[in-house]
Amino acid sequence: MQRISTEHVPQRQRLAFVHDFIARHWAGMRFAPVDEADLRIDISVFDLPDTVGIARAHYPPIVGSRPRDLLSDGRDNYTLAIVSEDHEVSVEGCRAFTVAAGDLILINEASWFEVRHPRAKVDVVSLGCSQVAARVPRLDLAPFYHVPGSAPGASLFVGYTNLLRQAPPQGEKARRTAANHIHDLIAVVLDGFVQGGAERNERGIREARFELIKKDILERLGDPALSVNSVALRQGVTPRYIQHLFERNGTTFTEFLRDNRLARAFQRLDEDAVGMSISQIAFESGFADLSNFNRAFRRRYAVTPSSVRAEAMRRRIR
Question: Are residues 207 and 103 in the same domain?
Fold first, then answer.
């Protein structure tokens, strides 16, 4: 993860820093702040294969443009932005229009455009031109696409990019898989907006959805009422679809939930969580019945919870 910020740049040098580094070399744009005295920009970005980039920026009120004199730099990827506030966009050949907070706006970097941001958080995804075109063959019929945040597939795309932002994939294989998923998911989002339709990659969609479902479960391990039905409701899919995803990966929803609850309890016991009894750790890990917890723990680890805690205490006093 790379961070680009004006935080440690002296006030009198910030405008030059924005012009020479952030605008031209990183974003391929030109920025004009509404108030030069309020020029605080912070950007976090990481790259994936196939020219995918995922960034989050915090801007003051500012105008960002891709003017014609910059178009000769050869950039032709697609930039997708999701802004936390309503903002105005102008694209070559079109009247200015308002993009609502949470909507997706996809623009080809080979086009002239201008964006007027209020003070806002902006999530940006850079997409490889050839990779997107292979999945959406008629994409170049328009220089931009405005997709409502409520459009089919939009929440899945946003959720998956947020997941990557929170935990960037490590290793070349994982990074390339994530880049493929990003391109597959944007094809789903554009289906219905591009004349002639877009080509879906169902495998990539399933795998991206599976990652979000696992994240949902792991964030709620301590809830004893967590069920496949409640996860399905939050994710907008059927319980059977979730079960099918786990079966394709050689396990079940119940096994995944139980194993991760046990792993959480083992970690707490091994760390000798101060002030918590074994029963409290079991309940905090999502087990509603202590006897079931003890049986499952012994089957999984071939030791009792009390043995793990005792060993942790011995390590502490050595």
Answer: yes
The tokens for 170 are: 């490590």
Residues in the chain: 318
Strand pairing partners for 11? none
**CB-facing half-sphere around the CA of 315: CA atoms within 13 A:** 10
Distance between CA atoms of residues 83 and 89, nearest Å: 11
Residues 233 and 168 in one domain: no
Asked whether the beta carbons of 79 and 124 are under 8 A apart, the reply is yes
On whether both 49 and 106 belong to a single domain, the answer is yes
Three-class DSSP category at 125: strand
Q: Are residues 85 and 124 in the same domain?
A: yes
Cα dist from 280 to 97, 206, 240, whole Å:
55, 36, 33
* DSSP 8-state class, residue 22: I
Band of residue 112 on the pLDDT scale cut at 50, 70, 90? very high
pTM score over 0.70: yes
Contacts of 162 (CB under 8 A, 6+ apart): 123
Structural domain count, the chain: 2
- Alpha-carbon gap, residue 318 to 298, rounded angstroms: 26
Render pLDDT for 211-249 as a digit per residue (tens, 0 to 9). Answer: 999 999 999 999 999 999 999 999 888 999 999 999 999
125 with 17, same domain?
A: yes
